[in-house]
Amino acid sequence: MAAFRRGCARWQQVRFLGTHHYDLVVIGGGSGGLACSREAAQLGQKVAVLDHVQPSARGTAWGLGGTCVNVGCIPKKLMHQAALLGVAMDDAGKFGWSIPGPVSHDWWVWLRMESAQAHFCCHVPQKVKYFNTRGSLLDRHTVRGLDAKGTEMTLTARNIVIATGGRPRYPTHMFIHAWTEVMFGIFNKVTFALVKSHGQNLSRMEDCGASVYVGLECAGLLAGIGLDASVMVRSVALRGFDQQMAQLVTGHMEARGTRFHWGCVPTSVEKLPSGLLQVKWTEVRSDLERVEREDTFSSVLWAIGRVPETTGLNLPQVGVQLHPDTGKIVVATDERTTVSNVYAIGDVAEGRPELTPTAVKAGKLLARRLAGQSNQLMDYHSVPTTVFTPLEYGCVGLSEESAESRYGKDNIEVYHAFYKPLEFTIAERDASHCYVKVVCDRAGVQRVLGLHFTGPSAGEVIQGFAVSVRCGLTYAQLRDTVGIHPTCAEELTKIHITKRSGLDATVTGC
Ligand code: FAD
Question: Residue 361: CB within 6 Å of ligand 1?
């Protein structure tokens, strides 16, 4: 420490603010970090949280709250809502509304409202000391904070929680002269801010894996506000999700005009004098046949996954082990890292779902354990989720493929139904991708292993069913449940056709 201080003193612009002691220091003020620090403070712990946003390649930064409120779930869902309203306006005429004149979407109005919402969502928990400072570990009990003005301090703590999340992955497989070329790609918030500013009615998403759900969601919401969106997919869409459901989701998007370039890998992006971006890519048709293609786009959005934000944290030096493949922090079931008083939660932790509610819950439970109030561990099984594509897809539990590989094809029973949401009838909307599927253990009481739904308000539907799946729902219990009529969710309680039977699974009548 003394040697470090002497080093800092030589660096004239660094002002040292002294050392402060806490029960808990949290590095990262996003979903997990804020939830953890709030809970710990409420339980009487002396807590500090350090949060600092490293500007993106385009120089975009944002405030406290992390990915979810600033560049993730919240702006994405609000944009999705904007797109849904567009569909509702299309439907409205058929329900008797007269909408005067052609309607159009104003990007900037939306952006203003969304930004206000993000500020509303996020504040520092009471009784938590907040530092807008970049944190790193000096040793297992000492955190160094350095802010943008060069003010430095050290904080010592009994326990340290790392909740630094992740950042977008940059394309590295393709030829890029310098970072300026990467800037042509648009990332997250920058996307939300800049697509329309290109002023073209053309926006395409370069996605070397719409396997990443965010890629599909972005394409869907851009198409939903009237932009011309294309998606480039290297292999499959929504990797890790049930592939039949993924095909329904992309099939619906294709039917509504989003173009998909399947089996394609981008090779370069160049800015033309016109300001448009020339994208070149390889279409892999087979092991022997590859076709080089190119086209111009007004915007390119990379949605090729995220990398854990561990840079500059000094983790290996203090003994915190990183996963050799993912670079995430290796954690035990109690979120403990390889250093016993240092913990990691949320997107930065290895093997955890990259979702806000899991980061929040893990943070709260950890705070309770650290305060000696509970022994409860976070249960990462049967975490429900929803993909907010134009046709939403919600699920909980195993995909059909995972159930097959875990139990064997003959040992699972898959019930399914194609249904038509009532609201689609008068509106004459295509319902061919609205589908429910329940994957059960075939033996005994037919425990539900996975539940899948495409259709309106999928998140709202699946949230309720997730409780029952966690409680050990069986097929008989599902069938004994009285549905709410007329809803889409009731289709899950009526489901009775098995895939094995080969019978037509289309729901007819009321
Ligand atoms: P974050 O929320 O990312 O917070 C980490 C914070 O730590 C950031 O503020 C970061 O700047 C800061 N930080 C990093 N390094 C340091 C350092 N050295 N010192 C100080 N501060 C530092 N999840 C859902 O559940 N539902 C969704 O619909 C959904 N949609 C998404 C859409 C998009 C476009 C994206 C990108 C993500 C989405 N997610 C969604 C995922 C969700 O946002 C993340 O899982 C969640 O935010 C992770 O929380 P976290 O606390 O781990 O990290």
Answer: no
371/313 Cα distance (integer angstroms): 25
485 in catalytic set: yes
* Nearest-CA residue for atom 27 of ligand 1: 73
Does residue 164's CB lie within 6 angstroms of at least one atom of ligand 1? yes
Percent of all residues in the chain with a pLDDT value above 90, rounded to a whole number? 66
Contact in structure between 318 and 342 (CB atoms under 8 Å): yes
What are the tens digits of pLDDT across the range 57-109?
Answer: 777 788 899 999 888 898 889 989 999 999 999 999 999 999 888 888 888 88
Kindly state the DSSP code that residue 376 receives in the 8-state scheme.
P
Q: Is there an atom of ligand 1 within 6 Å of 308 CB? A: no
What is the atom index within ligand 1 of the atom nearest the CA of 347? 52
Residues 6+ apart with CB under 8 A from 500: 413, 414
Per-residue pLDDT tens over the stretch 450-490: 999 999 999 999 999 999 999 999 999 999 999 999 999 99
For residue 313, CA distances in Å to 4, 27, 48, 319 come to 16, 9, 17, 12
Instruction: Give the position, in ligand 1's atom list, of the atom nearest the Cα of 28.
Output: 7
Closest to 413 measured CA to CA, from 439, 380, 376: 439
> Which distant-in-sequence residues (6+ apart) come within 8 Å of 329 by Cβ?
162, 308, 310, 315, 320, 321, 322, 323, 337, 344, 348, 349, 350
Round to whole Å and give the CA distance between 375 and 122: 29
Nearest to 268 by CA among 259, 280, 257, 284: 280
pTM of this prediction? 0.91
Residue with token string 């009321």: 510
User: What whole-number distance in Å separates Cα of residue 408 and Cα of residue 134?
Assistant: 49
Which pairs count as long-range contacts for 386-389, CB under 8 Å and 24+ apart, including other chains?
Answer: 386/458, 386/459, 386/462, 387/213, 387/216, 387/217, 387/238, 387/241, 387/249, 387/458, 388/76, 388/77, 388/80, 388/217, 388/220, 388/221, 388/459, 389/216, 389/217, 389/220, 389/249, 389/252, 389/253
In this predicted complex, what is the ipTM?
0.99
Quick check: helix, strand or coil at residue 462? helix
